[in-house]
Structures are given as structure tokens and as C-alpha cells.
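Posting this for the archive.
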Amino acid sequence: MNIDSRGGLGYAVSGWYIFVPPDGTLLLRRLHKNRENLSLSNRPRFATTHWSVVLAAGKSSSANQKQALERLCQSYWFPLYAYLRRRGYTNHQAEDHTQAFFAHILEKHDLQAANPKYGKFRSFLLIRLKGFLSDQRDRAQSEKRGGGRKILSLSFQNAEGQYALEPADQLSPEILFQKSWALTVLELTMDRLEGEMTRKGRQKLFEHLKIYLTTDKDAIPYHDMATELEMTEASVRVTVHRLRRRYRKLLRDEIAQTVGDKNQVDEEMGCLFSALAR
């Protein structure tokens, strides 16, 4: 982390350069997509959870249970794995506990207790994992890999390589869990905006402008972009303004999908900024 020349805090983490100026506005720029042959597009994603998916996963009678639970596990397995590794478990132990935990919540139907009115699902999941670990210690029994209940297919091949990309400082397991969530919300938001532009046949334009969606407006080279894109400077300004506004809206929408009450969105936005600033 360093003091930026503009008076705010600037730092690089997990493939992003993040700048928080004195007014608290979040500015970020994605750095290299590939580090040590691990592409962000290939990383298991800590995806924002839609409550409809979570609730479907918790109802044994739901026709969408399997699909919903697979989506849930693919979204949350790595942050839990990273949490366990940061708590001192070996990579094999973290794999075992992650697999056994998801088997446990499926068998015990713990997801039936997950409800939007109770707040954030990511908090629910971490609390359940802590309880599961405590129960495991109390039992003090020897179990086979995956707790003998490997009923879900999770891919751990790149888990250690991905974990190596996490901040090397002494972040607590809980803070590392929150930071993984925050960075993925940002990534999902950018991916959604890119998808919208692609469907409109404007992917090339998006590729040119995306790095300016989260940077300081005063640093945007409108004249140079206009020349490169063969557009008027006024048109470039309007396009960038609309894309930045759409990005902010999509970011709020991603946050809204993780809470039980729309009144919690601003609070979660604050949590996201706090997680990134640690």
C-alpha cells in the first residue's frame, strides 16, 4: 500500500490496482490477467450468491436443488479453502474439510436455515463452517478424505496455486474471506458489463474503454481515445460517462443480490470498500 500522489491510498492486490481518494470514491484498474499461468477466467469464482439459488439448494424437494447446490459450491469453495489454509490447516486437510463441510450442509439441510431476512449468506456460511470445525474437533475421529462423504465434485487442482496469489501479509482468515468476496464482486460486475456490450456488438469499443471505467475522470485521455476510435471527443465523453454510470449500477445490483433487505445495500458497499482497503 502507498500514498498516491493524489492524496489517497493506492495498492495492488490479487490482480487489481485500487485507489481510494480522500472522498472515499473507489477507483480500480485490473492489472495483468495472467500470473504464474493462472488466468482469472480459470479461477474458481467466489461468486455473488443469488438468494433464490441458495434457498433452492436448501429445499430437498426442489427440482433445481442439484443445479443450485453445484453453483453454490463452485462459488464458495475456494474462499472457504483459503480461510482454512490461513487458519493453519495443510492443503490436504483444507481439501478434506471443505469437501466434508459441503457434504454436511447437504445431509443436514442446513441451507433451509438460510433466509434473506437473516442477512448476508456469506456470513451464514462462515458461521456454519466454524461450527462444523468445532464439531469435528469434538468428535476427534479419524475420517477418510472428504470425511467419507464425497458426494460433490470440487476441483482442487489449482487450489494451492490460487492460494499463493492471495496477499502474503498476515491477514486473518476472516479478513481474507471478506477480501475474496469483495474482489469477486468487482470482477463479476465488470464481466456483466462486458457481456452487455458484447450482446450489443460493441465489444471492441468496450475493450478500449474498460480501463477508464474505474479510474480518475481527470486522467482519462479523451482526445487520444477519440483519435484511436475515430470518434468525436464529445461522443467518447458521453460513452465513457454512460459506461461508468452503468458500472456503478451493476455493482449495486451485485451487492443487492447478497443481502436480504435493499436497505442493507449501502452498508454492504461500505463493507466492500473496507475489505479492499485492508
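The radius of gyration is 21 Å. The longest strand covers residues 9-13.
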